[in-house]
Amino acid sequence: MTHALPPHHDAAELDNAAWHALTGPHAHFAEGNDLARRYPSDVAPFVAVRSWAEPQVWDSLVELVGHGAEIGLSGGVPEFPPGWEELWRGQGVQLVETEALRPVPDPEVVVLGREDVPEMLALVERNKPGPFLPRTHELGRYVGFRREGRLVAMAGERLHLDGWTEISAVSTDDDYRRQGLASRLVLDIAFHIQQRGERALMHASAANVSAIAAYERLGFARRTYTTFAGVRVP
Q1: If DSSP codes are grouped into helix, strand and coil, which group holds residue 64?
Q2: CA pair distance 109, 86, nearest whole angstrom
Q3: Which neighbouring-strand residues pair with 92?
Q4: Is residue 11 exposed (0-12), middle (13-18) or buried (19+ Cβ within 10 Å)?
Q5: Could you tell me where the beta strands, DSSP code E, fall in 187-219?
Q6: Residue-wise over 174-207: b if at least 16 C-beta within 10 A, else e?
Q7: How many CB atoms lie within 10 A of CB 123?
Q8: Contact predicate 93/225, CB 8 Å
Q9: How far is the C-alpha of 36 from the C-alpha of 19, rounded, in Å?
Q10: How far apart are CA 92 and CA 202, in angstroms?
Q11: Per the count of CB atoms within 10 A, which of 107, 188, 201, 205 is most buried?
């Protein structure tokens, strides 16, 4: 029996998406060197390396973040060398758009900016969709829905690498779930991504089966599994 290959299985840049963002369209945010880079601490928590096969990569990470720092890594994270304390490790899923995705602009969404950050941070704190920091909105276009003036749902663009943009921070308050707001946000953001000639990708915890199923119904498909890990630098 022949098994179909995952969509865009050969898009190697997606295997190290944060690195290719920090050396590509998001290079102006990058702090670091030729082996390890990061976003500013108030923009995004991502630290990325060019290749784990580089002999000096661990020294480069220490130089970048400092001794004793706690950092998050993603992708093909290897076992840590002696002295590096693993804090947590989990499995995620990377999803990419397929031809089944039918993006559409939504006339009701509001574009969110700096003045909306307090409400965005509060919405994320209530719903825990993943990391969102005071300057995360600078990474791309963020949109939401308001009800009686209150922000009740949001999503936006995070990692941006050549040809691809990640949809992230999909979050809806409990009282407004099961109304299709999250799907409408994803389709609106995907529309604007495609208008730039790019494709959309997403990440989710492998344990969040309901979110993965919802994204698959919209026209996304699993490309690969990925590892997320936290570590304390010696």
Answers
A1: helix
A2: 41
A3: 205, 226
A4: middle
A5: 199-205
A6: eeeeeeebbbbbbbbbbbbbeeeebbbbbbbeee
A7: 23
A8: yes
A9: 8
A10: 10
A11: 201
Number of H helices, E strands in the chain: 5, 11
- In this model, does residue 3 exceed pLDDT 70? no
Asked if 159 contacts 30 with a C-beta cutoff of 8 angstroms, the reply is no
CA distance 173 to 122: 10
Could you give the residue ranges of the DSSP H alpha helices within 95-208? 117-127, 181-195
In what order do the strands lie in the sheet containing 220-232?
70-75, 220-232, 85-97, 199-205, 164-172, 150-161, 142-147, 110-112
To 10 degrees, the CA torsion angle through 185, 187, 190, 196?
-100
pLDDT tens-digit series, residues 100-147: 999 999 999 999 999 999 999 999 999 999 899 999 999 999 999 999
Percent of the chain's residues with pLDDT above 70: 99
Helix, strand or coil for residue 69?
coil
Question: What residue type is assigned to position 13 of the chain?
Answer: E
Quick: pLDDT tens for 88-102.
999 999 999 999 999
Q: Is the pLDDT of residue 224 over 70?
A: yes
Three-state DSSP state, 17: helix
